[in-house]
Design goal:
This protein is of the alpha+beta class and about 350 residues long. About 30% of the residues lie in helices and about 20% in strands. The chain has a six-stranded mixed β-sheet with strand order 6-7-8-9-11-10. A three-stranded antiparallel β-sheet has the order 3-5-4, with helices on one face. Strands 1-2 form a two-stranded antiparallel ribbon.
């Protein structure tokens, strides 16, 4: 399968490309994963290929040793059906059921198959805006859904490339293709906006540089001078950060406030206002994130990671909700994704009011 069989990967609503699975493997960047050595980064393709094969063999042997194959394979089939095969339909259903009145929907880590499905399912009510450069290999893209009622013309231009060019020269910012989408749009009342969607790296080290790059782009580009910013993001910030290794949420807040921004959680977010609660077993490849079931609260990813940012002088928050059920309700201390909620991040829903 990895080296001989070809698969077709959709890259647009009408186009797909044929490739062999091993060609979809990507080098591992030291900028994104600073714990690896330069040598490991240079050899990351053969190393991950070998380690993947070894891991698969161990996994199958271990499961067959612990329990009869019909038992664990049946359980796995149920999980794969709901969390993988039905992830796109479940996501579409939740958005239609609970968020169909939203003016802007910012999504991250979106597959190309979701983009194609969304373009069909939301055609009557939303402009579905993917980045011009889709990440077909990792298949994780930040996209926007813009209400056709609020934004009749959809995105008027994409400025993602300008944002990338605004990173400080010589500084490696750990962003990948598809992580950032920034566009301009005009609403039905003639107001101009910059609207962005962003997926931060695992440690959140790209989040502050990306926010700065967006603001720098707006400040240095004449035609963006009077645009209003709305920025939805998976910031990957942490309740307890670690300097140079994990982005602390309060440090992030202090930074965006210093730039004249505020958030759906205010200027000083509660570090215990979590938007993720997930833990990994040892039956997956990132063993550094694995823990026992009894340790899932202590060692799982339980953090305040998600934000909607805007200029403090332009907007104020009327209401913010978070949701890990798909029904505009958040159940605290419940691990997710679940069989009914396909995301490992909660949904944020914010009503903003323009300041007079």
């Amino acid at each position: 399968f990895m080296f001989k069989n070809s698969v077709r990967i959709p890259i647009s609503e009408t186009e797909s490309e044929e490739t062999v699975p091993y060609k979809m493997l990507q080098p591992i960047s030291k900028a994104k994963y600073p714990d690896i050595t330069e040598d490991e980064a240079a050899r990351s393709l053969p190393i991950q290929t070998l380690c993947g094969a070894i891991f698969d063999a161990i996994l199958v042997h271990m499961m067959n040793t612990v329990v009869d194959p019909p038992v664990w394979q049946s359980l796995k089939k149920t999980m794969v059906e709901n969390l993988n095969k039905q992830k796109v339909p479940h996501t579409v259903e939740i958005l239609k059921r609970s968020y169909s009145s939203s003016d802007i929907i910012a999504l991250q880590e979106v597959s190309s198959s979701f983009v194609i499905t969304a373009q069909h399912e939301f055609a009557d009510h939303y402009h579905v805006v993917p980045p011009s450069e889709i990440d077909a290999s990792r298949d994780q893209n930040s996209i926007l859904l813009l209400s056709k009622a609020r934004f009749p013309n959809g995105a008027t231009s994409e400025i993602t490339d300008l944002v990338h060019k605004s990173f400080p020269e010589g500084v490696k910012v750990p962003v990948a293709t598809g992580d950032i989408l920034a566009v301009t749009a005009m609403d039905a009342s003639g107001n101009d906006y910059v609207i962005a969607s962003f997926h931060g790296d695992t440690n959140g080290l790209a989040t502050i540089p990306v926010v700065d790059a967006i603001l720098q782009t707006m400040a240095s580009t004449n035609f963006l001078a009077n645009h209003k910013l709305i920025f939805g993001m998976d910031a990957n910030t942490y309740e307890h950060g670690e300097a140079g290794k994990k982005q602390d949420v309060l440090e992030f807040a202090s930074h965006f406030v210093s730039k004249g921004l505020s958030s759906c959680w205010g200027d000083t977010p509660n570090p215990e206002n979590y938007t993720t609660f997930n833990a990994r077993t040892y039956l997956q490849t990132q063993l550094n994130k694995a823990c026992k079931s009894s340790e899932k609260r202590e060692k799982g990813d339980v953090n305040p990671k998600d934000f909607i940012l805007f200029a403090n002088e332009q907007f104020e928050v009327v209401l913010t909700l978070k949701d890990n059920t798909g029904d505009k309700k958040y159940i605290e201390d419940m691990a997710f994704p679940t069989l009914n909620f396909p995301s490992d991040h909660g949904i944020l829903s914010t009503v903003l009011k323009e300041r007079e």
